[in-house]
# Entry
Amino acid sequence: MPIYEFRCRDCRRISDFLVLNLNEEFSPVCKRCGSQSMERVLSRVNVRLSEETRLERLADPSLWGGLDENDPKSMAKMLKKLGPELGEDFPGEIDQMVEEAMESEGGESGDALADEGID
# Structure
């Protein structure tokens, strides 16, 4: 699909746009600040992996080396990484809980994750 990325020269935010007709004039507008001062950037290639390949990558021990099951911040990072790899979208409440755990300094004792039904 022809998806192009542009960087706003004002706020530096990158936005992506689906361009269906390459023959028509296209003037991107920043999705964050509304500026029309945009520059096209080279996009990364997005490759879809098979379920088997995704699961094999999750088995790599180096991926989980820093995991501390007693640290909510560490567990939150693991959930954020694990969910998309398995093709799961966390409901908004869990996303919010994960973000809060990642932002907290000392974190809690891990009970917050257990209370939400996450082992």
About this structure: The chain is about 35% helix and 15% strand. The first strand starts at residue 3 and ends at 8.
